[in-house]
Structures are given as C-alpha cells and as structure tokens.
C-alpha cells in the first residue's frame, strides 16, 4: 500500500475515532443530565433518588419537573402503592435549591427564576396532598428545598446523621418552601427561633422537634427500604407499622434529651414578640449566655430578611399551606427582582 493511501486511511480512522468519542461524550452528558434524579419501581414502591451527591443533591428546575411528572404517573398507577424519596451519596438528602445554577441562568433569563419558585412550590403542595403514602428518608443535610420535598410528606425518617436547618435569613431570603406553614406549627415558638436564627438540628433532635415523624439508625435504612418495597398492596397504616417498628428498635441517642429542652422557656418568651426589635430587646434583657449567643447570630442576619420572616411566620400560622405557598411565591419574586 502506498504511503498516500495509508495516510488517508489513518486520517479517516482518526476522524472516526474523534466522532465516536464526541458521540460517546454526548451520550454521557445526556445520561448525566437525566441521572440527576433516578426514578425506579421497586416492588410496590416508586423510589426517587436525588442523584447529585457532589453538589449535596441540590435541586434544579429540571429535577423538580421530573419529580412532579413522575409523582403524577405513580399516583395513577394501580401497581404503585407508596413513594420513597432519598438522596444519593450518604452526606446529604438535599441541601436546597442549586442557587448558583439558578442565579447564573436567572441573570440571563428572569423567567427561569419565576419558573423555579413557582414549580418548586407547586411540587411542595402536591406532596402535601399526595394520595399515596410518601416516605422521605432525610438522611444527611436537609435544608431549604430539601425540606420542601420532605416535610410536607406523610412520613419523614431522620437518622443520627440528619442535619436540618432553614438558613435563609443569612443569605437575604426567608424560610420558604412552606416554612411559613410548618415552622409556626412546631411546639411553642421553636419554629420562629429556627426560622430567624437558622439554628441547626441534628440527629434525633430532628425527630424530637417534630420535623421528622420517625427516627431510624442509618445502618438500617437499606433494610427499611427493602421491607417497605416488599409490602403487598400496603395502606398508610401498613407503612406506618413498619416505620414504627424500626423507630422503636432504634438505639442511637435513644436517651438523649432535646438539645434545646433547657432553653425552651427562653425561646418561648423571647421569640413571642411581634417585632424583630422587641425580640432583640427580649434577648438583651434575658442576658443569659444562650440569649446573648442568639443575639450575636441575629445581628449577623439580613435585617430585611428577619422582618420578612417574622411577618411570614405570623401570617402563616393561620393560613392553609396553599395560602402560605402563594404568599411565599409573591415574596420570592419581590426578593429576586
């Protein structure tokens, strides 16, 4: 074979290889995008896995749309009897919305910000009214949007590695995703305290506070999922029985007292005021080390966010979830633009 022909063949082969690599890359890219959420049927359960572990399973518009669409299908499917939602990677259930991605896109297209918040809140409301048992395994970091896709469900399972927080007042926002509904309904003024300070609850405290409905040792989560999926045409009561069995058998921190138990009287007293200024004054007058520490925290927060959050929680205490989400959508748009 002459050298010219050899070079032409090599050139064609290299071109083919480049094309193959590009196509393979494109297929992988499409797979990666689609794999941000894994949607599977396991036995009687529809299982949702938030699959962005390197980004703490933060939510994007695409993920929200996939979850909403699949929940609609499973609600109508006679072979699907319950939903299980969890996070991949073991570090986080979901750390909230992907603020970086949303803001980068939003700078070019404001409509995407409107779509994100509207569709996220629609999903939150849909989960609250879902007609089949909905089990959220809130193992690891659970904040913001992660709270929205879990706390409104019928069952929420915490582990010793759960970490709950609504940190929005530190970033110029407010505890949305229905925070105006569930926070003021926690014991005493605990929800006001959590919403204004962004205080982090860990492990069994997430259950004790009322965020989770059950507590299970993390090493038992896989077995729990298997047992739930293996149920035969289960009712909500059947699902509750399995969860209660695991909860009762959990051993980690069983005798641990609630981290805020000794401070609840101060929280109820200081955070019962109708203005942020009065809450600050109450903390000053209390003068305890706990009160002064919370004063330091509040002084680092956005003053506007604090005022919005307090009003949001006060208003939300007497509203339905739908009314709260409508209010929060309007607030989100006012904060964004």
From TrEMBL:
Transmembrane segments: none annotated. It is found in: Mitochondrion. Its main location: mitochondrion. Keywords: Branched-chain amino acid catabolism, Hydrolase, Mitochondrion. Pathway: Amino-acid degradation; L-valine degradation. It comes from the Eukaryota. One of its GO terms (cellular component) is mitochondrion. Its EC number is 3.1.2.4. One of its GO terms (biological process) is L-valine catabolic process. CDD domains: crotonase-like. The keyword Kinase does not apply. Residues 46-336 form the Enoyl-CoA hydratase/isomerase domain. Gene3D superfamilies: 2-enoyl-CoA Hydratase, Chain A, domain 1. The keyword Mitochondrion applies. GO terms for molecular function: 3-hydroxyisobutyryl-CoA hydrolase activity. It catalyses: 3-hydroxy-2-methylpropanoyl-CoA + H2O = 3-hydroxy-2-methylpropanoate + CoA + H(+). NCBIfam families: PRK05617.1. Hydrolyzes 3-hydroxyisobutyryl-CoA (HIBYL-CoA), a saline catabolite. Has high activity toward isobutyryl-CoA. Could be an isobutyryl-CoA dehydrogenase that functions in valine catabolism. Also hydrolyzes 3-hydroxypropanoyl-CoA. Belongs to the enoyl-CoA hydratase/isomerase family. This is 3-hydroxyisobutyryl-CoA hydrolase. The lineage of its organism: Eukaryota, Metazoa, Chordata, Craniata, Vertebrata. The gene is HIBCH.
């Amino acid at each position: 074979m002459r050298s010219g022909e050899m070079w032409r063949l090599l050139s064609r082969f290299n071109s083919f290889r480049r094309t193959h690599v590009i196509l393979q890359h494109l297929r992988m890219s499409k797979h990666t995008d689609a794999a941000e959420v894994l949607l599977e049927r396991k036995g009687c359960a529809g299982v949702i896995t938030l699959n962005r572990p390197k980004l703490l399973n933060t939510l994007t518009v695409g993920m929200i749309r996939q979850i909403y669409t699949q929940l609609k299908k499973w609600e109508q499917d006679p072979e699907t009897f319950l939903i299980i939602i969890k996070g991949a990677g073991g570090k986080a259930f979901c750390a909230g919305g992907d603020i970086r991605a949303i803001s980068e896109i939003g700078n070019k297209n404001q409509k995407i910000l409107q779509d994100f918040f509207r569709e996220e809140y629609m999903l939150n409301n849909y989960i609250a009214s879902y007609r089949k048992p909905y089990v959220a395994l809130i193992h690891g970091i659970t904040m913001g949007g992660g709270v929205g896709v879990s706390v409104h469900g019928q069952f929420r399972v915490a582990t010793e590695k759960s970490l709950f927080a609504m940190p929005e007042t530190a970033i110029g926002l407010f505890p949305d995703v229905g925070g105006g509904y569930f926070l003021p309904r926690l014991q005493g003024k605990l929800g006001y305290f959590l919403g204004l300070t962004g205080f982090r609850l860990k492990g069994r405290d997430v259950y004790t506070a009322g965020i989770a409905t059950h507590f299970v040792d993390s090493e038992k989560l896989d077995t729990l999922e298997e047992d739930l999926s293996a149920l035969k045409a289960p009712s909500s009561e059947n699902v509750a029985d399995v969860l209660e069995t695991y909860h009762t058998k959990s051993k980690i921190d069983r005798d641990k007292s609630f981290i805020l138990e000794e401070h609840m009287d101060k929280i109820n007293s200081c955070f019962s005021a109708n203005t942020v200024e009065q809450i600050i004054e109450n903390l000053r007058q209390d003068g305890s080390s706990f009160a002064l520490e919370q004063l330091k925290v509040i002084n680092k927060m956005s003053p506007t966010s604090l005022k919005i959050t307090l009003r949001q929680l006060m208003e939300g205490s007497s509203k339905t979830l739908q009314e709260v989400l409508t209010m929060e959508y309007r607030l989100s748009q006012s904060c964004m633009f």
